[in-house]
Amino acid sequence: MNAVPGPSFSSRSFWTGVTSFVKNGGVPQRWRAAAGAGAGVVGLGLALTRPEVAPHRKLAAEELWRGLSSWKCDVSRFASIAWAEPVEEVVEPSTGMTFPSVVEEGRLFTGTGLRKKSILGLKKITVYAYGVYVDPASLKSQLGNKYSSENPEELKKNEEFYDDVMVSDVGLTVRLVIVYGSLKIGSVRGAFEESVGSRIKKFGGAANIELLQRFTGAFTDDIKLPKGTIIDLTRLPGNVLQTKIDGTEVGSVQSSLLCRSLFDLYIGDDPFDKEAKKLIGQNLASLLC
What we know:
Elements: E1 8-9, H1 11-24, E2 32-34, E3 40-42, H2 58-70, E4 89-91, E5 98-100, E6 102-103, E7 107-119, E8 123-134, H3 136-147, H4 152-155, H5 159-167, E9 172-178, H6 185-204, H7 209-216, E10 230-236, E11 240-245, E12 248-254, H8 256-267, H9 274-288
């Protein structure tokens, strides 16, 4: 049974639909489809699957199942739903780069941003677009008690909230999609040595070359980075920072300091893209409040 493909959306319109579903216990009309043998297929735009069909999305499917139960729905009527591959994607408007609405382990998209870099101080180029994803279950488990009664509009302005997201063992993924086609792996390694290295010194009180090199050492000279290459930087349980390039794991480092230093680039007090941080923050807050 196949779901009817849906359109692409901007990150803002996509999230409006997601929060409408989560908060109201309903499914927006534009996400409904029918497919095969009269069984209803709900095209949520989330790449959720039944646990027995796609084990790597088990957590996301189970969370939706729990949600349906909490709304006192007749869960049995959903037994024939087929959660297909992603039926919607999010487009970063200035580059055209696309991001799935959900990545591994049911991590939900919260927003996109851009990493720009000056060349000889004359011209800024877009190096990559990025999307930030969160595991809603771990977010609620780690921070729900502290922030669930807050107003999302106010919470997104609270720097302590961002610090708690970075410091706590919340499941986060930052997906980088390379835009600049002439980018060399050495430039990526050098950029992380500078940016993550400065954060390690900031949060740790001193430089930690050994820790930094354990992370940047994953970006070896044999790796090519054509336009569209995907780099996933994921915090796994226990503050393990995993690095994947086009789906292949190239490194893994256990360090809460490294995780905090990496995520500070995107949602810290001086992020690469300040407007992106506002949207990401509001959407993180909306999952809690």
